[in-house]
Design brief:
By secondary structure, this protein is an alpha+beta fold. Helix content is 21%, strand content 21%.
Length: 234
């Protein structure tokens, strides 16, 4: 009998089978890097430009231009589209899956000051079966081991027997709304640590989780909290 990773959730705390455990049989590609047009159209329809341009006395978000413009615009739009699930608008988190895994591609954006802090994060092994360091395919399907794109709401700090401390995520779109069932979380991992990167030239792969270096997890876990946006795109 095979147990699903969802079945290991107990009493609201996540008990995980392991984002990077022994891989199962290969899973066919279930989606491509191109996100279906309805999501793109929906997100691009509402872009709160004053947040980007610094109108009415607001600081300019990302003044050094570290974030790809289309990613930043869509994330800002998602804040408004999903406002009922994202009560905290002081910070948001963006992941640029277009970038190489060895690069810093997880952005913490302080909306109050406009400043950006960068971290490294992994993608799923199903998204990069040849382990090139680039995510090429995305899926919301259970057992695909792929990363999912779209808007997530952080759902608070938790702890699991495999990964230990983590941050829970709720997917807000049809491209990622099975995040809880798939146990997609933010957690620390050896294969995301700097020494792994120095040895291998790229980060390892998760089962779809946003794995980060152990040293980065603690500040992220404290600051992500609950009800903030994490937006992943390619």
């Amino acid at each position: 009998m095979r147990l699903s990773r969802r079945g290991l959730v107990l009493g609201g705390s996540l008990a995980l089978a392991g984002c990077a455990a022994v891989p199962r049989a290969p899973v066919p590609a279930l989606a491509t890097a191109a996100v279906p047009a309805p999501v793109v159209a929906e997100v691009a329809a509402v872009v709160p430009r004053m947040e980007v341009l610094g109108d009415v006395g607001r600081p300019v978000v990302d003044p050094r231009g570290e974030i790809r413009k289309v990613l930043l615009d869509r994330a800002l739009a998602a804040l408004d589209i999903h406002h009922h699930r994202l009560p905290h608008r002081d910070r948001m988190y963006l992941v640029d899956f277009r970038k190489f895994s060895g690069e810093a591609r997880l952005y913490e954006v302080d909306i109050a000051t406009g400043q950006v802090t960068t971290f490294r994060t992994t993608h799923g092994r199903g998204s990069d079966p040849a382990h090139t360091g680039f995510a090429q395919r995305f899926s919301n399907e259970p057992d695909s081991h792929m990363s999912s794109v779209g808007a997530y709401a952080t759902a608070g700090a938790s702890w699991g027997p495999q990964q230990g401390p983590n941050v829970l995520l709720d997917g807000l779109e049809y491209t990622n709304d099975l995040a809880r069932e798939r146990a997609i979380i933010v957690h620390g991992a050896d294969y995301a640590d700097p020494d792994f990167l120095a040895r291998e030239g790229k980060l390892g792969r998760s089962y779809g989780c946003f794995s980060v270096a152990h040293a980065d997890l603690e500040p992220l876990r404290q600051r992500m909290g609950e009800g903030r946006l994490l937006f992943a795109w390619s």
